[in-house]
Each structure stands twice: as structure tokens, then as C-alpha cells.
Write a structure and sequence with these properties.
heterotrimer; A alpha+beta; B alpha+beta; C mainly beta; A: alpha+beta; Aldehyde Ferredoxin Oxidoreductase,  A, domain 1; Aldehyde Ferredoxin Oxidoreductase Protein, subunit A, domain 2; 26 helices; 17 strands; 41% helix; globular; B: alpha+beta; Alpha-Beta Plaits; two-stranded antiparallel ribbon; two-stranded antiparallel sheet; 4 helices; 19% helix
Chain lengths: 608, 135, 74
């Protein structure tokens, strides 16, 4: 089948049995790949009510037609599972070089099932696929593990590994790859750890079947030309994701002191130029990316290296915790990566804990002697370690994630637990940015900005406006943006450089054959979106619109300082946004897809 | 003319490798490329690439005269003439002469198509005159 | 000698589609934006001679300036 590796690898860890089945053309046609394969498999194969950390859950790693080819940024795979953090749907998109290697091994998807009786790693080298003993690696941080596997098997091998975070089933544990790339959010690392899989060690030497190689070459060269000539490329490459932090501070989007405000007095020392000057060694790129945003950095203060910090960490471990030194933030980022926990969820969770400490809801004793005051860098570094090892009262509490930790501590701390559906909000403060607020409310993994991002749009239309066009924009972005990853490539060439998205369709046609349009992709995107919604409704007892509500902070606590001082969204506007969203999505008043909507997406066969 | 690499600009993305294999074999497969990427992590942190300098040593030792010069003046392997004797491989100072019968029934090398330069987003790769004096 | 400030495509609608602004050395970027009627908060980054600066940067003769907007985001 053109454009596909050709096989799905099923690994039954309980029985140690590995089978390979051909990728179904129907699945490829209707769900493309990536998270499309993920949700289809999750919905149909993981039984309702499965324990996310139990044997019935599955971890599905999939990619799509662009991956491993000449298409720029063709290095993305999606890791889908039932989330131990939220109890609903999770998927995490991972870049780097693992995805391409998956395709060269002839694979479109790996499905991890059951639980291994002892720690193993999945070894794949073309057609040799084995579960090997991971005892020598269990307990180690991901950097050491990746290094050891590369020395053992060769530099061409690509490694995805969990750290102690995943082994200890921290509910937001992640999977790490190539130093600075993660399948980050939703606890995919915890699921992998619950299955006792330490790593996937991958190598392939096959070619990817393509319908029209000459056409692919022409289309790809045009894409690369557009990327290299885009206005933003040079500056995006120079500064990476941290290019936005000073601006976020200016417009009140930089989360400060657990999202109490959107501007931070220490923002200047966290900026892109300071990072470039103090930290950056080189620009490090994912597969076939012409605008490498990864920043390989040296932390002189800590005598360590990391790939990062990213904007998210600058926001959530910097401004959010009152830390102003980029090297301190960098070390937070590095610790999260080494131990394998999602830096976004961790930063928000620690921010919540600091606010609890400020209010006396957590005492020094509750924090195992740590003084969790804003800006206390040593305490933050120690806390990250505690979380990864679930050590002490504090580690055990925070390893549950912010929502559950707030339920445990109570005392009103639920009101400032910044999450939606149990997924911590990523680094954009939304006191007065209604489209972005809606993006977080309705994101299909919870409060993550990956599906739709609308800060500039909010500023253009009017921050506090609640109008149908804002909702329409969010919906369009949700149906469209994630299709890049579903197709197997990074979205940031379109998102950041603003290249013409129509340049991608000739490449798709050349790879899989036929004639494709973005309208078709968005239709499939809507299908995936609605099936994901059905999954939430199936798995969460009493799932209703209350699960789409944001943290109360965003409709009741105007910031006392900064660019959005005194501004807040009204609760009635939050509800109005949601009403318009449900209407435009074709969902009922409880946020469930109507039968007509399901029929239009060919999902009417799916039974709740 | 020959390829040049500025290692300090290389991001390790491998766009050049997959593009090279498309040129040489009409396949998307970096294992069949004619340049080599060498990562250096964690220290000092960076990538090194080996590229063909068009020195012609491979052509000199080829017993079947399979290595010829194309319209760009670059040395390339005429597959019909290559008998896989591998005399060329150890001659290459940059280790960018390839023989692997799993992948191809011919030796392969860079033919200076220039596509790698087109897809190098960081301008690490370029094509220029062969220096009379080594740098 | 005027300074040219290249505008991100998303900012051009405020100046009838012009791709560049001109300004005199000695003006701050903020003032130039304000005079041109471009909402300051839409400009996500100010790049002067390939280095990111803030909006209070005072333009000097010969500066090459790019004014960026982030449309797609993260």
C-alpha cells in the first residue's frame, strides 16, 4: 500500500507473543494514521471501564504517510492510550527520529498489550522483533539508557524510553527520545511503565513505498523552498519556541504564580535573547525539519546539558513558580526529561502546591521539610525528584496530578487547580482571551494548546468578545491542525512559518496516490474528533458539560497585576462560548454528538 | 565543484540523507544515501557530516572504470560497469563510498545532484569550487 | 537616512498591504508602530540585525528590522 510501512505490530506482553498484521487499507482511507489509528484502536479494542494502568489498556504508537519521506518535518508519531491522569482519552505527539525509523522497519503502528511479567524492552531491527530483558536498565534515567542502547546497538538505532517517572507510574509520566523529544502528556509513560516496558529500541533499513517518487521530489522541493524563504524562518530557528515569552508577558498570557496573573516581573531574564546568549550550543532538528526549533543547551551553573528549555517550561517552571534565572529553569526542564515526567503538568502541579503553601493549606511538614515558596529553586528541583520517585508525602501527593491532589487536600484548593478534565493547562494564561480559553476547555486531551492556538486571534478580534466566529475558528483549527501529526509530519512549518498549506497536497497525492484535499482531511479530522468525544462519554461516568468547564480562576479572579490586571471572563460568557461550540459542532446540550452529526461523519455505526 | 559542509550549522535533521536516496535510488531510505551523519552527544553537542570532496581517488582505483564523471564534473558510479569488487571503499578518505548488497547491487556515491543543498534548512550544505589548496 | 522595518504579512492590513514601514533613526519601535496605526500588542517579536529586541528599542541608521506576528501559535 503506497505511503504506508505496511504492517501493524502487536505485542502481547502478558504472553510474550508478537504478531504482525497488514495495515488495513480501509483504516488508512478513513483514519489516515497517527491518532486516527490510535482512537479507532482504543475505542474498539480497549473495553469500557478498563484500568488505565491495568492489562486491558493498550498503548498504540502510530504514524502516517508523510513520515520518513522527503516531506519537511516528516518525523511525528502519536502515542494513544486511555489516560491514567484523566481517565479519558490521551495522545501525545513525539518528534525526533524515532518515527522515520518506525517506517523504515516497515511499520505503521505498534500496539503494546497486556503486562509483561518482568521488565523488558522491545527490540526491533527490520524483521527481527523481540522482547529483551530490561533489568540492567530499570531504574535509570532516560539519558543514560539511550546512551547505553546506542553504544550497544549502534548510532542508527532510535530509542524511546521511560525514566523512573514511568516506572513509578507517576500519572503524568512521559516517554523520552533523542534527548529532548517526548511523547509528553496524559501519562503515556505511566502506561508504558505499568506494562513494564522500559524502552523501544528501533532500527529499519527498508524503503517506504511511494506512488510517484518524481512527483514527491517536486512537491517536497517546493515545500522546502517555501519553508526556507518564509519571513519567519530565520528568527524562529534562532530562538525556537522561547521567541514568544516576552510577548506573552506583554499581553498577559505568561502564567505567573500559578496563573494568578499573565505577566511576570522577571520575564526579561527568561527571554529568547538571554537564552541564546547564556545557554544555547546549537540548533537541533527533528527529522527533515528545515527550521530546527530544538535548542541543545549547556547549563554552566549545573554542569549539565539539555535540549531546551522550551517556552512551556520557561512559562511553567519560570514565571509560574517565580523563578527568573534561565539556568534554574533549564535544570527543572532537564530533571523532568531525565526522570521522564511531563514538564507541563509538573510545572502546573508544583505551582498549585506553592499556592497551597502560601495559603497554609500545605505545611512544611506536608512538604517533607521543603519550603515551597515562590522562587525557591532548590525546593523545586527536590520536588521534581520526589514526584518522579513518589517519595515522601509531597512526592506521593503530586504524582497524582493537580486535580486529584486538590481533591485530597481540599480546603478550596480545587478552585486554583488549573486543569480541564484533569489535564493541567499549558503555558497560556487565559483570564481575558476567550478563544484561547475555549481551546483549553474543549481540547480533546484536556487543557492542552496543541489542537488550537488563538492568542493573536483573540487580540485581533477583541480579547473578551464572545462571538460565533471565534468558536468557528477554534473548531476549524481542531479539525485541521492535528491532521499534520495524523499524516506523520510536524505542524509547526505551517503554524510558525505560515507556509501555504496547499503545498502539502501534491506531496500526499504523490505518496499515496489519488487526489486529496484539505477539506477531505478536515472531514477526517472531524470524524476523529467526534469519535474521541464518544470515547470520553463512554469512559467517564456522568460525562457532561461540566467536564468542559475551565478552572474557576479564569472566571472569578482577575489578576492583580500585569497586562490583564482587573480583567476576567464572566461565567455567563464561558457558558455562552460552550453553547455556541456545541451548536457549531452538532452536539446536544450535554456536549454529545447528535445522531445526525455521527451519520455525517460515518460514525453512526459506533454504539455508545 | 564539490559539496561543502559547515558542521556548526548542521542540525542533524537528515533531510539531506532521505533526499539523496531519492536521487540515487528513487527511494525514501536514508540508509541508501551517499553522505554520513555523525552525532556527537552529550559533549560537545553537535553533528558532523562526511561529504564527497570529488577527489577522484575512487575512480583511479576502480578496475572496471565504473566510476566516471557526469555533466557536472562530479564522479558517479555507472551501475552497469560496477562489479562490487569494493576496491574503491577503503580508498575514500571521507568514508563516503558505499557498498551494501542488501541495499543495491552496485557501489554508490554522491553525484553532486545538489538536492541536499536545496533541502538543507540551516544552509550547512553548499556547493562550491574545489579548492586548489586544502583548507 | 531612513530605517526600513519589514512587516509580517499579518500586520500589513493595517497599512494598506504595504510590506514595509519607513522610520527615522532615533524613533522607538513602539512609536513607529503607534504612528502607523498597527496595534502594538499584535507584534510578537522585534528583530533588529537578527537579534531580538524589545519595543522600546531606539532605531539607528542602517538597522535591518523585522516585525513578527505569531498567527498559528504553538
Amino acid at each position: 500500500m503506497n505511503g504506508y510501512g505496511g504492517s501493524i505490530l502487536r505485542v502481547n506482553l502478558t504472553e510474550g507473543r508478537i504478531t504482525r498484521t497488514p495495515t488495513s487499507p480501509g483504516l488508512a482511507r478513513d483514519y489516515i494514521g497517527g491518532r486516527g489509528f490510535g482512537i479507532y484502536t482504543l475505542y474498539h479494542e480497549v473495553p469500557k471501564g478498563a484500568d488505565p494502568l491495568g492489562p486491558e489498556n493498550k498503548l498504540i504508537i502510530s504514524t502516517g504517510p508523510f513520515a520518513g519521506t522527503m516531506v519537511p518535518g516528516g518525523g511525528k508519531c502519536d502515542w494513544t492510550t486511555k489516560s491514567p491522569l484523566t481517565g479519558g482519552y490521551a495522545d501525545a505527539s513525539m518528534g525526533g527520529h524515532f518515527t522515520a525509523e518506525l517506517r523504515y522497519a516497515g511499520l505503521d503502528s505498534i500496539i503494546l498489550e497486556g503486562i509483561s511479567p518482568k521488565p523488558v524492552y522491545l527490540f526491533i531491527d527490520d524483521d527481527t522483533v523481540e522482547l529483551r530483558d530490561a533489568a540492567p536498565y530499570w531504574g535509570k534515567g532516560v539519558f543514560d539508557v539511550e546512551d547505553e542502547f546506542k553504544k550497544k546497538y549502534g548510532e542508527e538505532f532510535q530509542i524511546a524510553a521511560i525514566g523512573p517517572g514511568g516506572e513509578n507510574r507517576v500519572l503524568y509520566a512521559c516517554v523520552n527520545h533523542d534527548i529532548g523529544r517526548q511523547a509528553g502528556r496524559g501519562g503515556v509513560g505511566a502506561v508504558m511503565g505499568s506494562k513494564q516496558v522500559k524502552a523501544i529500541v528501533l532500527h529499519g533499513t527498508k524503503s517506504i513505498p511511494v506512488a510517484d517518487v518524481a512527483g514527491l521530489r517536486t512537491a517536497s522541493l517546493a515545500l522546502f523552498k517555501a519553508c526556507k524563504e518564509a519571513e519567519m524562518t530565520r528568527d524562529w530557528t534562532r530562538y525556537g519556541t522561547n521567541i514568544v515569552s516576552s510577548w506573552c508577558d506583554e499581553v498577559g498570557a505568561l502564567p505567573t504564580h500559578n496563573f494568578q496573573a499573565g505577566s511576570y516581573e522577571g520575564a526579561k531574564t527568561l527571554s529568547g535573547p538571554v537564552m541564546r546568549e547564556q545557554l544555547v550550543v546549537m540548533d537541533k532538528g527533528c527529522f527533515a525539519c528545515p527550521c530546527p526549533c530544538g535548542k541543545y543547551s549547556r547549563l554552566k551553573k549545573y554542569k549539565s546539558h539539555l535540549e531546551g528549555p522550551e517556552y512551556e517550561t520557561v512559562g511553567l517552571f519560570g514565571a509560574n513558580l517565580g523563578i527568573s534565572d534561565l539556568q534554574d529553569v533549564g535544570e527543572c526542564n532537564r530533571l523532568c526529561d531525565e526522570y521522564g515526567i511531563d514538564a507541563i503538568s509538573a510545572g502546573v502541579c508544583v505551582g498549585w502546591a506553592m499556592e497551597c503553601y502560601e495559603r497554609g493549606l500545605l505545611t512544611k511538614a506536608d512538604c517533607d521539610g521543603l519550603e515551597l515558596k515562590w522562587g525557591n529553586v532548590e525546593a523545586v528541583h527536590a520536588t521534581i525528584r520526589k514526584i518522579a520517585f513518589r517519595e515522601g508525602k509531597l512526592g506521593e501527593l503530586l504524582a497524582q496530578g493537580t486535580k486529584k491532589a486538590a481533591e485530597t487536600v481540599g480546603g478550596g484548593s480545587e478552585k486554583f487547580a488549573i486543569h480541564v478534565k484533569g489535564m493541567e493547562q499549558s503555558a497560556y494564561a487565559t483570564h481575558s482571551a476567550t478563544a484561547m480559553l475555549l481551546a483549553y476547555m474543549t481540547g480533546d486531551v484536556g487543557a492542552h494548546h496543541n489542537r488550537s492556538w488563538a492568542i493573536t486571534y483573540d487580540l485581533q478580534v477583541g480579547r473578551d468578545k464572545v462571538v460565533p466566529e471565534k468558536v468557528a475558528r477554534i473548531i476549524w483549527l481542531q479539525d485541521f491542525r492535528p491532521m499534520f501529526e495524523t499524516l506523520g509530519c510536524c505542524r509547526l512549518q505551517w503554524v510558525e512559518l505560515g507556509i501555504d498549506r496547499d503545498l502539502y497536497m501534491p506531496a500526499l497525492d504523490a505518496i499515496v496516490g489519488g487526489a486529496h484535499t484539505w477539506k477531505e482531511m478536515e472531514h477526517i479530522g472531524a470524524r476523529i474528533w467526534n469519535l474521541t468525544r464518544l470515547y470520553w462519554a463512554r469512559e467517564i461516568e456522568g460525562f457532561d458539560r461540566s467536564w468542559d468547564m475551565p478552572s474557576p480562576r479564569f472566571y472569578s479572579e482577575p489578576p492583580k497585576s500585569g497586562a490583564t490586571q482587573g480583567q476576567i471572563t464572566r461565567l455567563e460568557d464561558v457558558n455562552k462560548l460552550l453553547d455556541i461550540y456545541y451548536e457549531q459542532r452538532g452536539w446536544d446540550a450535554n456536549g454529545l454528538p447528535t445522531p445526525e452529526t455521527l451519520k455525517n461523519l460515518q460514525l453512526d455505526q459506533v454504539v455508545l | 565543484m564539490r559539496l561543502y559542509i559547515n558542521n556548526s550549522l548542521c542540525s542533524g535533521c537528515r533531510a539531506c540523507l532521505v533526499t539523496c536516496s531519492v536521487n540515487l535510488f528513487q527511494e525514501n531510505n536514508p540508509k541508501k544515501a551517499a553522505l554520513v551523519l555523525i552525532p556527537h552527544f552529550p559533549e560537545p553537542g553537535g553533528y558532523e557530516m562526511k561529504v564527497c570532496t570529488q577527489c577522484g581517488d575512487c575512480a583511479q582505483v576502480c578496475p572496471t572504470e565504473a566510476i566516471k564523471q557526469n555533466e557536472r564534473g562530479a564522479y558517479y558510479v555507472d551501475r552497469a560497469e560496477c562489479n562490487l569488487c569494493e576496491a574503491c571503499v577503503p580508498e575514500c578518505l571521507e568514508d563516503v563510498m558505499f557498498v551494501n548488497t542488501k541495499h543495491a547491487d552496485t557501489a554508490w556515491k554522491c553525484d553532486l545532484c545538489g538536492d541536499c543543498v536545496s533541502v538543507c534548512g540551516t544552509f550547512a550544505l553548499s556547493i562550491g569550487e574545489i579548492d586548489a589548496v586544502p583548507a | 537616512m531612513t530605517v526600513m522595518l519589514r512587516l509580517h504579512p499579518a500586520l500589513r492590513s493595517y497599512v494598506e498591504g504595504k510590506p514595509e514601514l519607513t522610520a527615522a533613526p532615533g524613533a522607538s519601535v513602539r512609536a513607529v508602530l503607534s504612528d502607523a496605526g498597527i496595534p502594538v500588542e499584535l507584534v510578537a517579536a522585534v528583530i533588529v540585525n537578527d537579534e531580538q529586541r524589545d519595543k522600546d528599542y531606539v532605531l539607528q541608521a542602517g538597522d535591518r528590522v523585522r516585525l513578527l506576528a505569531v498567527i498559528g501559535g504553538g
